[in-house]
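Sample entry (158 residues):
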Amino acid sequence: MTTTDNSALKQRFLTLLVTETQQLLSFVSVLEQERETLKQENVEALIELAANKAGVARQLQHLAHNRAAVLAQAGLPHSREGIERLLAGQYADIWQKYLELASEARTLNQDNSLIVSQRLAANHQALATLLAYSDQPMVYGPDGASRTRPGSRHLGSV
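Predicted structure, serialized as tokens:
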């Protein structure tokens, strides 16, 4: 590959990297909004954020695919090492910003996933508790104490 070809590939890669860094910044913003919305338990807002998050994720995936193609054209592996070889020590500030944002996005996504998992576990536990007691209708005896009534009809049954 000639120096001109390599320079053109480097410029194309740099353009993709800048665009992808901007998209990562948008993704981090969406993840931060998602975290706050999860804390507020606002389901309506979560639905809208999920659609927005999926759209930004698709754009990031498309950019990553294009980045891999440029690296392949340069004869380099799609890895951190391949990227650093292509950049050859230039544009370290942009590359570092990209790495920081990618790390932040990963952490936020994991944290949000943990919040969702905890809420889901709490909901399952509450549902299991409610279902366990729903099979035993409660009645009050002559003394005013509640007790189960064996053999009774369930509400809504004939």
